[in-house]
Amino acid sequence: MQKDERLDNSSPQPGVSEQQQVITRQLFKAATTLSHIDELFLWLARTIIQRFDVQVTEFWTMRGNASGQAAIELRAIACQDTSLPPHVVGNYQVSAMAEHILREQRHLTLVAMASIFPAHQANLLSRYGLNYCCGYFLSTQPTGFDLSSESTSSVSTASSLLFLRHALPQDRLASIGLILEQTIPIAKYRGLLVPAQLQAFSSPPQRQPQPDLLELTPRRSHNAELMRSSNPLASSVDIVDKQARRLYAAIDGRKNVDELSSTTGLNVKEMYAAVQILLVQQRIELYEPGGQRVTNLSL
Q1: How many angstroms separate the CA atoms of 127 and 182, rounded?
Q2: Which CB contacts under 8 angstroms, 24+ apart, belong to 122-129?
Q3: 16/13 Cα distance (integer angstroms)
Q4: How many Å apart are CA 159 and CA 98, to the nearest integer?
């Protein structure tokens, strides 16, 4: 694989658009109705081509085997043009690029097809009006994760390839990236990473269904309030994590997580991490819309 300089090691960072926030919330809610990560990939692929004028969206993962080797696998694809032949965007050259993103663990900045594909592949894509490509690395694992450890029972890394007719503005590409980055964490939270074939033969789950995090209302715990009243100097300042500190300061006992996301400017992924920190530190408790305290939330 050539043209490594096209890979960007940083996450897209421009401002979060209103459309991005809406789709992220829809993604979180869609995850409550689906049973597997592939269904979530497909839902998101279709949403991206509908909302962002992207012609093709693909999701790829690495699947390991008993010998410890990993092979690239296409998990979901959505095309604006349903007559597009599968071999145009699902061949060896395309899979090699998706695998390269996974192994390098970097995003692929928007580039012309001729910059990353051999001439015959670039010409084939151009023939169908696909002139630009970009890619995103998705993961819940830190950089340096060993792809050979991927198994048939879990998905912790993925790459997404987007094919476009025209170059999109950077802020729109950044919004897409922010949405995509939250896909696997949301799927993990919703328990969608178990393969469908294992779900089909497993016994019904014994645990209670997980409530929708966005609809839960965090309240400061009595222990935290007692500590604060006994020591006027104790406040949210001693919360080391900046995002958790921002969330804790905004909690008023009335706003739910969705509303606090808008108040604090934190996206769903950041809110999830902040809530987890505050729960571990026993600073907050979560309550359902009816006022019942949540005691069985699995984070």
Answers
A1: 33
A2: 124/88, 125/88, 125/89, 125/163, 128/81, 128/84, 128/88, 129/55, 129/81, 129/165
A3: 8
A4: 6
Q: Which of 161, 91, 89 is nearest to 128 (CA)?
A: 89
Q: What are phi and psi of 138, to 5 degrees?
A: -120, 135
Bridge partners (DSSP) of residue 217 are 287
Cα 155 to chain centroid distance, Å, stands at 12
In order of 144, 187, 207, 253, 284, the CA distances from 280 in angstroms are 26, 21, 21, 18, 9
Between the alpha carbon of residue 181 and those of residues 123, 155, 201, 245, 273, the distances in Å are 31, 14, 31, 22, 14
Res. 1 pLDDT band, cuts 50 70 90: very low
Residue with tokens 């939330």: 297
Tens-digit pLDDT profile for residues 98-121: 999 999 999 999 999 999 999 999
Domains of the chain: 4-200 (3.30.450.40), 213-287 (1.10.10)
Which alpha helices (H) appear in 168-254, and where do they start and end?
170-181, 183-189, 196-201, 222-230, 242-250
CB count within 10 Å of CB 237 equals 10
Q: Which two tokens stand for residue 49?
A: 């081509």
User: Phi and psi at residue 32, in whole multiples of 5°?
Assistant: -75, -15
| Amino acid letter, residue 21 | Q
Residue 106: other Cβ atoms inside 10 A: 21
Q: What is the DSSP letter of 110?
A: E
AA identity, residue 148: S
In 3D space, the residue among 19, 7, 43 whose CA is nearest the CA of residue 183 turns out to be 43
Return the structure tokens found at 18.
């209103």
pLDDT on residue 209: 53
Categorise residue 234: left if φ over 0, alpha if ψ from -120 to 50, beta otherwise: beta
